[in-house]
Write a structure and sequence with these properties.
Elements lengths: L1 E3 L3 H5 L18 E10 L7 E9 L6 H4 L6 E8 L3 E10 L2 E12 L3 E12 L2 E15 L4
Parallel strand pairs: 1-3
Antiparallel strand pairs: 2-3, 2-8, 4-5, 5-6, 6-7, 7-8
């Protein structure tokens, strides 16, 4: 399956979060990427794994900024460079449970990887969800 749009659609698709951030110097190679996303949470005995193919059309993106689309979160301690970005976040309000976490994403030319952990309290118990990503570049041309 090929999806059009930034890789962050895949990265953040399993989260209902948002966070504010500023423009990033983080860069990624444009073209076709295959991305494996693994989500681990205490409610599933096995990790949920999804592999997608994405067309990256912009040479930079900011996962922390992409989280802003849902509203209700703030980013703290965001750090970025040409090949990595990390951030911490806090969310809550507007009917959503309070949550917090941190993420990191790294690209090395034709490979990329990352992880984000989020903790929230539901019914008096803390639940931690971990998403991890592995991507590899398939080529400059998108189908």
């Amino acid at each position: 399956m090929t999806r059009q749009g930034p890789i962050t659609v895949c990265i953040l698709s399993s989260l209902l979060l948002a966070a504010a951030g500023s423009a990033s110097a983080f860069e990624i190679r444009t073209g076709k990427w295959q991305v494996e996303t693994e989500m681990r949470n205490p409610m599933s005995p096995q990790p949920q794994v999804e592999t997608t193919t994405e067309c990256i059309t912009e040479d930079s993106f900011d996962p922390a900024q992409a989280m802003m689309e849902g509203g209700g979160c703030t980013v703290t301690d965001k750090q970025d460079s040409a090949d990595s970005i990390s951030w911490k976040f806090k969310c809550g309000g507007n009917g959503m449970p309070e949550s917090s976490g941190e993420g990191k994403f790294v690209t090395r030319g034709k490979t990329a990887s990352g992880e984000m952990q989020m903790s929230m309290v539901l019914n008096g118990q803390t639940m931690t969800i971990t998403n991890s990503w592995k991507g590899h570049y398939l080529g400059a041309k998108c189908d």
